[in-house]
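Margin note: ligand = calcium ion.
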Amino acid sequence: MSTPTKANLNHGSRFGLAFALLTLLLIWPSQTARADEIAIWNFNDSNLIVDHGAGTLVTSFTSIGFAAGTTTNARLGDPAGLALNLTNQTNNGQNITLSVSTVGFSNVMVSFATQGSGTGFNSNQFQYSLDGVTFVNFGAPYDPPLAFGSSPVVFDLSSITGLNNNASAAFRIVFNGASSATGTNRIDNLVVEGTPVTTPIPEPASILLLGLGLISTIAMRRQRH
Ligand SMILES: [Ca+2]
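Resulting structure:
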């Protein structure tokens, strides 16, 4: 094996460094910010159990029902199916509460499709909690449209940094304003999402490429000495 010249060594060293940098650039796109669903309720199976991800949903309503749903705000290909159906003026002041750990996420958002009848709950207050105990109003009360629209109701909680990476995060909607026993509110495709904050683990192929690039660089430098 012939002894490499200094020119060859420099070339090899530069090649190795370039290879490592190229590999880093290939890994980089997996680290860019994007919103991921943390928990999704589609209500298609007539219960309050989370349908994708992890979380719990409880209600203080004396009774709940399910009625035709929508694909507005549907995720992961969920069909319209059913929606949560909340009725009766006797439930004014009652709530639904979501407990969803946001560990590993920031820029938390909660969104859902909704519609309400004329005598249904028309002054509904969204709230959040940092400890799952004390709830704080967020935004003004909303009045659902008469029909599921093309746009969901969205609460962007990215300004509430205490909700980032929080195992005790919780969200609540307090319903008010119903004026009859048959007034309704439907909610469907209830989604809690956020931006992953943990550093993704590079794919094995990327690690191998990075390693090869670094080994090449080190090997060439050793040969110089
Ligand atoms: Ca549904």
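Residues 7-31+201-224 form one domain.
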